[in-house]
Amino acid sequence: MSSAAATEQATLPPLPAPPKSRIHYRRRARIASVFKHAGLILLSIVMIYPLIWLVVSSLKPNDQIFRDLSIFTTDLTLDNYVQGWTTQGLPFSHFLLNSAILSVGAILGNLISCSLAAYAFARLRFRGRNLFFAIMLGTIMLPFHVVLVPQFVIFRELGWLETFLPLIVPKFLATDAFFVFLMVQFIRGLPKEIFEAARIDGAGHPRIFAQVTLPLMVPALATTAIFTFIWTWGDFFGPLIYLRTRENFPVSIALKGFVDAQSSSDYGAMFAMSVVSLIPLFLAFLIGQKYLVKGIATTGIK
Amino acid sequence: MSSLGELRKMALNRKGSGIKAATPDNKAAYIFLAPWLVGLVVFTIGPMLASLYLSFTDYNLLKPPVWSGFDNIVRMMNDERLWNSLRVTFTYVVFSVPLQLAFALLVALILDRGMRGLGIYRSIFYLPSLLGGSVAIAILWRQVFGNDGIINGFLSWFGIEGPGWISHPDYALGTIIILHIWTFGSPMVIFLAGLRQIPDMYYEAASMDGAGKIRRFFSITFPLLTPIIFFNLVLQIIFAFQSFTQAYIVSGGTGGPSDSTMFFTLYLYKQAFTQLDMGYASAMAWFLLLIIAGFTAFNFWLSRFWVFYDD
Q: Which stretches make up the ABC transmembrane type-1 domain (chain B) (predicted)?
């Protein structure tokens, strides 16, 4: 195939190309394109099928969920949603609210602290800049398990177990270095003249930061907000360690409750609440797509 | 540009950016950096030193740590379950990372620029990576590969009796690897961005010289993409070593069947938070750090032979 394609490419346009072969070539290109799209559509279906199956299963009566590959069914019911909403001891809205509080806290923290640090790294000259910057990049790659136990001890000593503070306060101290880096890259890409003009006009750094930089870096802030939301909403490990009473559970831990209580035939309820938990993520995906793709392309965050 | 490229550049020209001309903004800079600096000391450097110390102690949270020298390290050497968890984790990393990246690259190559429906395909392929880390998807995976799940349902169409994917030690890890490959969308997006940066004229010139598709891939696309492949590889390996949620949920928190999905991090979690063996867990965490650092360093060393930098 390779050599055939190569020779064809090589000999293809002899200057006065006979029309027949050009049409032939175009037809071949079209056939190739049809195959390509067919393959991609097939792959799309494979990729998306489990998700659709989850949604459809959540709408099926419990006894019909398994051994039924089909996503086409007429026998739909909302029973699972009604059931699932209450079956974890508290209404599921309670867990949704907990996740929302955690997410908003984390988003605010990351936006404020990371943008401050990023401004300093991108725009200011200071002693130790290169060293600090290297350390900052290094922390992106540091496995968090290394700080896990001492952090737990710190929060325990502070009496913060069973509160949201261990999951929110570190965000206000720019511990998600990924976002600092993302914002540094973004600010560096802004035209220097704007900052120089602001300087000449006599603006100090707080002003340049708040009135010039922040408005210009909205795309980077949006990327940060969306990724922080998605990570916090999906975070399992943090809440697993710090939150052990039901009232404090976010959605991720509440869902785990369904897995633990496997004895019952509550698969429908489990699926229904899984769908509910994914809806905010899906909305964030829809709203933030443009930023997400750009953010991931430039820095490689998930 | 990637963070790795940045690090590499800094390593190459240490003297380069030490600009002395303009007046430094030390005071302003430290004020802006204050939250990050506090976080660094309180939540990163301090805890790192503390966990290094705890690695040499016996500590159960209830009583103060007791110095135990190399006991934890000796114990690690003889801990069969720990070595098993390492083997599980290595298997996971070795299969899931290259497969996912290869798949991501392949699909990115098929998604030509200016192709019809590019945006839609990209969204569909990317969506699972965004959702993939969530508990709901891990639960879904448990059911998809369950005894009565859709995979076995699909196989039964062809008269194949599917195994208990989740309940059989030989297959359980494989399902988690497949879950990882399913989330190939994020590296794919990075590859797409990288492909877009390759100037069209290279391809035009190569075409004129009579290079075919395969030749153009190996002579232009691949070499120019190697920094991005390298970047993806390093980061994905680092992240894969730390995987936790999927193994936890798919195995119902047990790492089973027969420890076949007992990831290193899952074992570490159990030591720390169910056995309250915080000293041992700290030693394990440092071991993990050394393994990851070793892998990363090896990757950087290896990159000399295959990564092509333009600058």
A: 82-299
Which among B76, B73, B96 is positioned nearest to B84, based on CA atoms?
B76
**Beta pairing class for B57-58 and B66-67:** antiparallel
Enumerate the residues of chain B whose CB falls inside 8 A of the CB of residue A144.
242
Euclidean distance between CA atoms A174 and A112, whole angstroms: 8
Q: How far apart are CA A254 and CA B77, in angstroms?
A: 37
Is B6 within 8 Å of A9 when comparing Cβ atoms? no
The pTM score is 0.89
- A98-151 pLDDT per residue, tens: 999 999 999 999 999 999 999 999 999 999 999 999 999 999 989 999 999 999
pLDDT at residue B148, rounded to an integer: 78
Domain assignment present for A5: no
Chain B interface, mutation test: which of A48, A145, A172, most B Cβ atoms within 10 Å? A145
Q: What is this model's ipTM?
A: 0.89
Query: Which domain does A32 fall in, by range?
Result: 11-77
Q: What is the pLDDT of residues B143-197, one digit of tens each?
A: 889 887 888 888 888 888 888 898 899 999 999 999 999 999 999 999 999 998 8
Contacts of B140 in chain A (CB under 8 A): 50-51, 54, 271, 274
> What is the topology classification, in CATH, of domain B73-305?
MetI-like fold (1.10.3720)
Check if A189 contacts B (Cβ < 8 Å).
Answer: no
**What gap in Å lies between CA A212 and CA A197, rounded to an integer?**
10
